[in-house]
Design a protein that fits this description.
Length: 230
């Protein structure tokens, strides 16, 4: 019989990392060093962040799949409400088609509903699967692709600055000002911005005036498809 409970030991997180690595090849969790880092980071997040919890689906002591809960707050029509979030859903390759993912989602919905939380959100890997579970699409997000050469030239760059880790709080303040007046946005915390600076690939540039960040952009450089080092 399947049981779903919080991941609590290093061994359980080690079993989970293999499931995640297979479920999300883009995460590039392949070497022992990469797996070790994922386990350490995940355990640290669960220990230090009260809004994130990892769960596993067990059959006796065998881990079949898992997920990560997120306790969010959302600005809904100028009212702050609690929202349940789920991510990092993964099922062991040998236990596909055994309704493990369905058990994960059922447990997730029941847990938040029991807290009186009436809204749940996620990023769908398969919209049709989640539609069967009662989920629908939120507000459309438009993605624009702009060549740097098409950006207009301003009169001055004096307020454009590289943003460093010691400005994580100012980034949060900037985001929070937008969050407070934007329907559907999720509340963020300083730790989320601090994590940006732990990723060496991420670059953060902002418009800074009177020691306040008025706007910012997070980006990274990617190699060309032809592998040309230039």
């Amino acid at each position: 019989m399947k049981a779903i409970r919080k991941l609590s030991s290093e061994g359980e997180f080690i079993a989970f990392v293999d499931i995640v690595g297979n479920a999300y090849p883009g995460f590039n969790i392949e070497t022992e060093e990469q797996k070790k880092k994922f386990v350490e980071n995940s355990m640290k997040v669960q220990e230090e962040n009260p809004f994130v919890t990892f769960y596993g689906v067990f059959e006796e002591d065998n881990l079949l799949g898992g997920m990560r809960y997120h306790d969010f707050k959302m600005n809904l029509l100028s009212t702050k409400i609690k929202v349940g979030g789920v991510g990092l859903i993964g099922v062991d390759l040998l236990h596909k088609k055994e309704k493990v993912a369905k058990a994960i989602m059922t447990k997730f919905i029941e847990d938040y509903r029991s807290q009186g939380i009436s809204m749940a959100i996620l990023y769908p890997f398969n919209p049709e699967f989640y539609k069967k579970m009662g989920f629908g699409f939120g507000t459309s997000i438009s993605q624009y692709r702009v060549k740097p050469s098409n950006l207009p030239k301003g009169k001055s760059k004096s307020n454009i600055k590289h943003i460093r880790g010691n400005d994580a709080k100012k980034l949060l303040d900037c985001y929070t000002r937008i969050y407070e007046k934007t329907n559907g946005l999720i509340e963020k915390y300083e730790r989320e911005f601090q994590l940006l600076f732990n990723n060496q690939k991420m670059k953060v540039v902002g418009y800074k005036k009177n020691n306040e960040i008025k706007g910012y952009m997070v980006f990274e450089f990617k190699p060309s498809h032809d592998k040309n080092i230039l």
